[in-house]
Amino acid sequence: MPNLRKVLSGDLDKLFDEDKALQRPEVQKRILVTGGAGFLGSHLCEVLLEAGHQVICADNFSTGLHQNVEHLARFDGFSLIAHDVVEPIDLDVDEIYNLACPASPPHYQADPVHTTKTCVLGALNMLELAARHGARIFQASTSEIYGDPQVHPQVETYRGNVNPFGPRACYDEGKRCAETLFFDFNRARHVEIKVVRIFNTYGPRMRPDDGRVVSNFIVQALKGEDITIYGDGSQTRSFCFVDDLIDGFIRVMASPASVTGPINLGNPAEFTIGELAEQVIELTGSRSQIVHRPLPVDDPRQRRPDISLAERELGWRPSVDLSAGLAQTIGHFDALLTRPDSELMEVA
Questions:
Q1: pLDDT at 105
Q2: 346 in any annotated domain
Q3: Considering the chain, what percentage of its residues have pLDDT values greater than 90?
Q4: Per DSSP, which regions of 1-106 are E strands?
Q5: Strands 30-34 and 95-98, sheet pairing
Q6: Tally of domains within the chain
Q7: pLDDT (tens digit, 9 = 90+) per residue, 18-33?
Q8: Can you tell me the distance from the alpha carbon of 213 to that of 290, in angstroms, rounded to the nearest whole number?
Q9: Which of 21, 105, 116, 218 sits most deeply, having the most CB atoms within 10 A of its CB?
């Protein structure tokens, strides 16, 4: 793919000169997706490309993977930039989806200072870009901003219960600050913003070393290892399949300018961690045993979104139930763990 080679070698000017020569339909947009080679970003890039848009995928590949986007080379409108959002960049774009940031505790805690920079400086740099070019901008925030919630289910007006100096704070507080920047740019500089708070999402293209509960359980079950539950397994989560979430992203970005968010996007069906483990064991046919370990610091006891706002403003509600979504995700990991050419074999 010529564009891919040019971008990775830093020849951006040549790339954009060629892009300007393309004859594009009026409805086509030029869209930047930061974190585009990650789990969520790669699915979003694919949907946008299939809709006929030009997509610039930017990723520093700290957790994103080339294999997540290599199949997108078949689209003429796809470009890939090796870029860290901590550093400014100037591109002529119509829309920006800011997804850049490790989202699993083992990954974002590995370099907490850089995680905070990614959340805060990354948001600032993307907002400045949006302001310069009059672009609409989307922020992938998180249910983690609710912390260990004292309100259940969580509504967007709830201000959260976050430990500002705990081991998860680099991500939780980083995302909270990013939201602040988004709404300040909207009020002070009239930038069109969209802010969503993502609840636990799973599906194909998750990393086997992701460190979150769905990938942990599936990989352990497929390998016949003990399934590790932290705590007694009574803590709850709500699991949203990736296809449903990306549909929500698209609806949010297409909504009227007055719909700024924050908007919860997640599946309101609530399961205990113990119930999830049992489903994974059943669907994989594994003989894995369940073992318990101490609960990590600041791990939330309950997590379930109130999605009334998304239903009312977007007409959105997830449609994939947990068993169907897990079956697809298990198929992904089963294939991945047997691929000798996988980027992830060394960590699988």
A1: 86
A2: no
A3: 84
A4: 30-34, 54-59, 78-82, 95-98
A5: parallel
A6: 1
A7: 444 344 445 799 999 9
A8: 13
A9: 218
Q: Compute φ and ψ for 53, nearest 5 degrees.
A: -90, 160
DSSP tag of 147: B
C-alpha of 338 from chain center: 25
- Cβ neighbours of residue 175 under 8 Å, at least 6 residues apart? 101, 119, 141, 142, 144, 145
pTM to 2 decimal places: 0.89
Q: What is the DSSP letter of 77?
A: T
Unique residue bearing structure tokens 């399934």 = 227
Q: What is the dihedral of CA 275, 295, 328, 68, to 10 degrees?
A: 170
According to DSSP, residue 101 is labeled S
Rg (Cα) of the chain, in Å, rounded? Answer: 20
Q: How many CA atoms lie within 13 A of 156 on its CB side?
A: 17
Domain range for residue 305?
A: 2-200+242-267+301-319
Reference 343, options 225, 208, 215; nearest CA is 208
Catalytic residue numbers read 171
Peptide bond into 2 cis (omega under 30): no
Q: Is residue 288 part of a domain?
A: no
**Cβ count within 10 A of residue 229:** 22
Q: What is the domain-level CATH number for residue 39?
A: 3.40.50.720
Q: How far apart are CA 105 and CA 171, in angstroms?
A: 8
- What's the rounded Cα separation, in Å, for the pair 154 and 106? 24
Rounded-to-integer distance, Cα 98 and Cα 26, Å:
24
- The SS3 of residue 302 is coil
Residue 307 included in any domain: yes
Q: Establish if 285 belongs to a structural domain.
A: no
- Rounded to 5 degrees, φ, ψ at 141 are -90, -165
Tell me what pLDDT residue 343 has: 60
